[in-house]
């Protein structure tokens, strides 16, 4: 997989550019584990805040993080991509084949402090390329009502909401996108 980068004007308007790079990384690497913890903590806390008015219990959080090892996000049928902003780990996207021609996106996440700087788009494009590399002709994903930033990102990138493709108790929106044919 090729590294991909996007450049933008710095937040101070100085014209200084901070590059985004994306590359495959083992799910057990230090960067991948730290980003998984940040992702899971955020989505879990958001769910509990909306539904129960509280943050995730610390012991429950630790159990859930340890239980989801990222199985399926390793070759030959999957990949975990880590995005770096200015060289520092900043986001992830997981891709796994779930059926012939069908890839599923998971763990699509950019650290909150770096949102709005193009990382989500860079990650999503790299994830689609990775899905094609795994032989997928389309990708699917699910998300929740409270993850409005994610839903907006998917819509901007041509994902179409459709009927449920799973029975995950936390899924409230299901998206799909056909990938263009690979070019040599």
UniProtKB/TrEMBL annotation:
Residue numbers spanned by region Disordered: 1-24
GO MF terms, alphabetically ordered: acyltransferase activity, transferring groups other than amino-acyl groups
Keyword Acyltransferase on entry: yes
Keywords from the named record: Acyltransferase, Transferase
Segments forming domain N-acetyltransferase: 34-180
Keyword Cytoplasm tagged: no
One Pfam family recorded for the sequence: Acetyltransf_1
Protein name: Acetyltransferase
């Amino acid at each position: 997989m090729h590294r991909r980068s996007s450049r933008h004007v710095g937040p101070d308007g100085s014209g200084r550019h901070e590059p985004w790079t994306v590359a495959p990384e083992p799910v057990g690497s230090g960067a991948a584990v730290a980003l998984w913890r940040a992702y899971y903590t955020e989505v879990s806390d958001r769910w509990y805040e909306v539904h129960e008015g509280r943050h995730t219990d610390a012991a429950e959080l630790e159990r859930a993080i340890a239980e989801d090892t990222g199985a399926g996000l390793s070759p030959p049928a999957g990949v975990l991509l880590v995005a770096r902003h200015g060289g520092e780990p900043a986001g992830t996207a997981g891709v796994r084949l779930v059926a012939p021609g069908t890839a599923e996106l998971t763990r699509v996440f950019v650290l909150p402090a770096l949102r709005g700087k193009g990382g989500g788009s860079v990650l999503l494009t790299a994830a689609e390329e990775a899905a094609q590399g795994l032989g997928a002709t389309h990708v699917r994903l699910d998300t929740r009502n409270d993850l409005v930033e994610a839903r907006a990102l998917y819509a901007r990138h041509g994902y179409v909401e459709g009927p449920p493709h799973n029975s995950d108790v936390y899924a409230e929106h299901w998206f799909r996108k056909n990938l263009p044919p690979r070019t040599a």
